[in-house]
Amino acid sequence: MILKLSRNNPKKELDFEIQYLSSLSVKQRFEMMLKKSREMVALLEKSGHRRPFEIIKRT
Q1: How far is CA 30 from CA 7, 21, 46, in A?
Q2: pTM > 0.70: yes or no
Q3: 23 phi, psi to nearest 5 deg
């Protein structure tokens, strides 16, 4: 689904988003959330930010 508006309307955008998310199953929502989380981690690593658990030991 694609929302087309002639002007910026936050209420219609929110209603559209809620309707879209409610049409998905719980499994689909979790898969989408996990996919976006992986994308964010990849972007952070690409930008030079390391993961918190990757601590470099000083010698």
Answers
A1: 32, 11, 24
A2: no
A3: -80, -15
For residues 54 and 48, give the distance between their C-alpha atoms in angstroms, rounded to a whole number.
13
3 state SS for the chain: CCCCCCCCCHHHHHHHHHHHHHHCCHHHHHHHHHHHHHHHHHHHHHCCCCCCCCCCCCC
Residue 3 has pLDDT above 80, yes or no: yes
Amino acid at 4: K
Residue in the structure block whose two tokens are 């470099």:
56
Residues 1, 13: Cα–Cα separation, whole Å: 12
